[in-house]
Design goal:
- The longest helix is centred in the middle third of the chain and has 20 residues.
- This protein has four domains: 161 residues, Glutaredoxin (3-Layer(aba) Sandwich); 241 residues, no CATH class; 176 residues, Glycosyltransferase, CATH 1.50.10.20; 68 residues, no CATH class.
- A five-stranded mixed beta sheet has the order 1-3-2-4-5, with helices on both faces. A four-stranded mixed beta sheet has the order 18-17-19-20, with helices on one face. A three-stranded antiparallel beta sheet has the order 8-9-14.
- Strand 17, helix 23 and strand 18 form a beta-alpha-beta unit.
- By secondary structure, it is α+β, with helices and mostly antiparallel strands.
Amino acid sequence: MMRGVNRLQDESSPYLKQHATNPVDWFAWGDEAFAEAKRRDLPILLSIGYSTCHWCHVMEHESFEDQEVAAALNANFVCVKVDREERPDIDHIYMRVCQAMTGQGGWPLTIIMHPDKRPFFAGTYLPKKAVQGRMGLMELAANVARVWQTRRGELEEAAAEIVAAIAKENTANKGELSGAHTTGAFENFRQRYDAKCGGFGSRPKFPSFQNLIFLTRYAHFENNAEALAMVEKTMTEIIAGGISDQIGFGIHRYSTDPDWHLPHFEKMLYDQAMFILALAEIFQKTQKSLYRTALLRTFAFVEGELKNPAGGYATAYDADSEGEEGKFYVFTYHELREILGEDELAFTVKHLSVRERGNFLDEATHEASPANIFHWIEKPTGGVSAAWPGETLFAEFEPIRAKIFAARAKRVAPGLDDKILTDLNGLWLAALARAALVTGNKGIAAAADAHFRFCAGLVSTEGETFHTRNARGAVAGILDDYAFLIFGFLEYYHWRRETPALLVAAQLADTVLRAFAGEDGGFYFTAHGSTDLIARTREFFDGAIPSGNSVMVANLSRLYQLTAEKRYGEAAAALQALYAGFAAAVPTGCAFALAAFLAASRGSELVVSNPRADFSEWLAQMYEPGLAVAETSATLAEKFLYLKNYSAATEAYWLCRNFTCAMPVDSPTKIRLI
């Protein structure tokens, strides 16, 4: 091994490469590491993080770059680094371990385990030495070394107990999803709603856009004005707040304060995708241009900053630059005075909360910072006003914004995690297709078409996909990869109605049914036959994005509507039955599954034959989340028998509910939705 460089220099993950110059003798996850641990009779220290994780950077600088810490770790452990985004299967299992052992989780994730991967210690961030009751890494290394040599039997018992605990299925009492579950979720959100600032709870505030999608659909189907007001208030606060990058567009990860002003500055592809999906639904519902503007701006950020010229979209931008979180994004008053004219500076002071003393407190010192985070002072009142002066102010601010953006571009940019992940790219395809439909924007349409071709290339002729590619080849696909790809292809089909999109969605769904299904209808995180982990687990509750199981509720329900294939209907029903138990216990953790259930239970099918022209504009004008549109073709009629019954020599539209159809009409404008 070269002096000053460890094995991670040969990895492709940006996160692993960040640690390539650590004095810690890191291994990547693989047989070499476990064989070395067995050979030396040492436990493994597993450290899991990701490239945009702030506290991962802190722990690296404090400990992994420290020669004293490295010496202790190298002497007492075989040290393994994992990028949680590259190997979510590993992260998923050991995060569950951490939550079971400590009651909490987070990153960096620190696990100590036997050479056969059975864990006996779990924690998150650890300082170099003990401080304020938190164990230090030096103390941990010494304690584990002593117990490993003198009381290993206790470690064996601890490992056996935790493996048995996590191997237990995440199960719930089956039932039947109903309006009681969706109303229960609404009431839960209502109780947690922040009427002053929007969102739910106090701080930190995560956007959790699947919650807003559920509430938009609940407002629509239940004619509930209060639910709609909650969505609009939250959306407008987010759009106007510091969590939105008012200079370069896109949305930051979360807000550390209740007002959406002070963000955690990392930018994730999945947040942009979920933001656009939620914006598309509320724009379709209300037709308010503010949401369309926010959607277009978010698209502009992703297309300009995250798109890979070779195809696909990168994972995330770091929060830190030059070792300081948010440094790239904030400006002092005096910096702005150098960039802007007097009137332009006065505008930013008046409307974007810029202050000479700075406009936020430093979280570490609780003292005033000289920096400013841009956020709009003017906001809609009550969340439902059609006109917001900020939309006019956007236009007035544009030349000022352009100047600040140009100055910002000269700074050292945050690190870009350029991994291309299948699940996130599938989610982004769904966002692009939905955005193209509701806006009619040609730039978004072109991006969606190109990205559909890229995503189709991720699927083998056998209907299989992978998670990502690294230095050792393709990483096996997990449930989320399949679920989000299917979601993307179905959204693309709804917009373009091109036969290949529906066919590949069905093919991937068949793989999920074959390779991931459990006996009770839920889907495992990894495929049958996976041997790299100590247990197979399932995830039903939503996190930062919807879980793979909740997305499969939407996918299977939509596929059943489009094809009438019994296997999709039965699988959707079985999964919904599981969610009846989960939603009864933790309704807000099942928001996306409940949103999918609302659409499916109130849904209808539209079968189209020989349309004379594209009718996407007609589709875009209505908000009907439960409408599934199938355009007949010879290929589809051969594949799905249901569609054989619907063909005509001339233009025809059949509107159906539960596959019982009204007489056809010859124009979409004559359709009266059930």
